Amino acid sequence: MRLFINRTSVKRLLLVFVGVLFIESSVQAKPERIVSMNLCTDQLLMMLADKDHISSVSYLAADHESSALSDQATNYQLNHGLAEEIISLSPDLVLASEFTTKITTGLLQDLGYNIVTIPVPSTIQQVIENIRLVANTIGESQRGEDMIAEMQARLSKTAFNAQNFKPVVAALYWANSYTSGKGTLANELVEAAGFQNLGKNLNLYSTTKLPLEILVFNEVDVLIIGSRNDSTPAMASENLHHPVLKSAFNGLPVINVPHQLWICGTPRIVDVVEQLQTKYQAAIQDKTSIVPKE
User: Fold this and answer.
1) Which of 68, 121, 156, 231 has the largest CB neighbor count within 10 A?
2) How many CA atoms lie within 13 A of 257 on its CB side?
């Protein structure tokens, strides 16, 4: 008795078999002991990865003054970016940033550990690219694309043609008299909400000092500060309580945006744009000097 085998059927069975093997290998290849050494990669990791695939995040992730996910971070072992800490965790993936100490990452790379460095973003598009990079690296591509789609949908709702109105100039003023100028994520978020950034108008680049004298000398409509929850007095924030600053901005809007929301390039930056645009719309309505162009 002869057994007749359809060649097409055999090919299909082989393709199915190969497909199953590929899926199994992909699942096995997904990192299961991930360590993050940076506040910003910490938060992206916690947003994208399964909890049981995260071995450790940096200690800053649990700092409620710096991290938007401080409560969530307490579920994980915390590290201080020391090589001996990382090695003891036997990670199959280590996430770092451009600011992570080169000595530690270099040593780990020499020892054969898989180090992925996430760039520091200065635009919303770069934030999106970082989310995609982390998601792909940890094997959660679809989760990353879903997160990006939600961000873009929310940002599309904030789209506003500020060119139809006279400029509303906002001054970003941080602790130690720092501001954000050209080439910063903060600048792009402020502009996305409709404001002009004083730092950019002054041709300042990156995060740099803005002397109080220059701040009060320029015509500003709104002051934006990055608030912290810490009530402990600190020399770094004394500039925010200077009597000259209070006098110069007496009666003008002061927008207090939580520091944790925009210190890192995560989906929380959309919260910043939404909050700022609410204030921008109010500024247009309340200030008689801000009217539609004729």
Assistant:
1) 68
2) 29
> Rounded CA gap, 279 and 28, in Å?
48
Lowest mean pLDDT across 102-116, 152-166, 247-261, 265-279: 152-166
Residue with tokens 């057994």: 3
DSSP per-residue codes, 24-74: HHHHHHS-SSEEE-SHHHHHHHHHHS-GGGEEEEEGGGG-TTT-TTHHHHT
Helix/strand/coil percent split, the chain, to 5? 50, 15, 35
Closest CA to 91 of 117, 65, 107, 115: 115
Both structure tokens of 17: 């078999």
**Distance (Å, rounded) from C-alpha 218 to C-alpha 199?**
11
- Domains of the chain listed by start with CATH number: 34-123 (3.40.50.1980), 161-286 (3.40.50.1980)
Tell me the whole-structure pTM to 2 decimals. Answer: 0.83
CB 134 within 8 Å of CB 166? no
- pLDDT digit string (tens) for 226-260? 766 555 556 656 677 788 888 888 888 888 888 89
Entry field: residues in the chain:
294
Q: What is the C-alpha separation between 126 and 132, in angstroms, rounded?
A: 10
Report how far residue 168's alpha carbon sits from residue 280's, in angstroms, rounded to the nearest whole number. Answer: 8
